[in-house]
Amino acid sequence: MTEQLAFFSRVTGSPAGLQYVAEFIQPALERELIDHVSALPLQPFQFGAYEGKRRVASFGFRYDYTLRRLQPAEPIPGWLGPLIGQIEAYGEPSTKIAQVLCTEYDTGVGIGWHRDKPHFGRIFGLSLGSSCKFRFRRAAGEKWQRYTLEAEPRSLYMMSGEAREVWEHSIPAVEAKRYSITFRTMADRKT
Fold first, then answer.
1. CB-based burial label for 103 (10 Å; 0-12, 13-18, 19+)
2. What's the fold here for domain 2-186?
């Protein structure tokens, strides 16, 4: 497993379980992926009765905030297959991507503090188009412990362990249009 995860590097001072790799893909593939994502029937993010400013498309599964449960979504598009294979090859031996979320952040759009739903296991995020400040926080007594990762275009991060389960994350308003593709495994529900 150490050889497989050597692909990722832990950033000094970052939350345990947060790993990062710069230049995960080449610029030509980045342009191709942006073209694919921008051609999707992206819809405003729905959070129950509220509508977010970012636009999304879910594949495999989507979380329904009104019903509070996972719902089936369209199958994962074939154009993501090689990229998923590359991510799965570098994850733990059991890595199996089951859900993909494609997101478009227009200039001035971000995402508030949250943790991904517990139905999901490891989270892999590919940044496209422009960089963003990927912020983390967790309660530390009466104060917050904070960390910010500068997620560069074409980079990939992975969240597991504490970074995934204890820390919240957010993205402040982006300065230029940004796309992301989030790849999720399903949580191991042995209990």
1. buried
2. Jelly Rolls (2.60.120)
